[in-house]
Amino acid sequence: MSEQVKENCAPLQHLAVIMDGNGRWAKKQGLPRIAGHQQGVQTVVKVVDECLQVGIRYLSLFAFSSENWGRPQQEVDALMELLLQFLASQRQKMLDGSIRLRVIGDRSRLSASVRRALTEAEADTAGGSALTMVLALSYGGRDEILRAAKQLAEKVSAGLDLQTVDDDLFAQFLDTQGIPEPDLLIRTSGEKRISNFLLWQVAYAELYFTDVLWPDFDAQELHRALEDYRQRKRRFGLTDDQLMTSGSDLSEGESH
Ligand code: IPE
Ligand code: IPE
Ligand code: MG
Is 20 an active-site residue? Predict the structure, then answer.
């Protein structure tokens, strides 16, 4: 039975993570929230290493949402500072590990110095082919879909035939253009919601929720999630019989 389930489960090429619980982790230790974010960065480093080890090709990390701009300015500033430190400290490692950075989200709200650092890091790592790390910064799923719809509307008024607009064409206007859809979405910290992450892209992602707070998440927890994923049966709207007769082709074909 479990072998059959394994056969029906598409290989995991894209893992997406809502890294939540930094603040509660810090509170539990009697530390300021930013200490939780600092510890959370250490978890990112560990998870990236493990993804490289197991051959995951895309790792999307929700690092800062459009709604997170509403947090106290001190926390927002500290998060941006941590981001800059992260980019500087991981640069060589990303080059050595053939890791490519891609940033999604509304960059116009980021400061000029953060934008510059991101553009540089993306350019420096553009040749990376082992793992693409997709950092969602100033990112909101609705905002991304709206921006895509506006771009598309411009194309239509410039002459694009509306009848030709389908899922695939629409997806080309999203920030994630060219990136396969996530196979598995993990959210830490016990919250069971999407919080505006990759709304279009997670249509058929498997969802995995754990109570573990992000700073406590590690390789072992990741493997727990991956094992859970392997037991899932992805149907993509089809019947079991259809999946049986076409083997794993259907689920794999629909995974991106
Ligand atoms: C996730 O941890 C990191 C960001 C949203 C930047 P939180 O900061 O949301 O931590 P909690 O949810 O308050 O514990
Ligand atoms: C989602 O976490 C955003 C990130 C992990 C960056 P939040 O902590 O902002 O989400 P809510 O407010 O609990 O839904
Ligand atoms: Mg949170």
Answer: yes
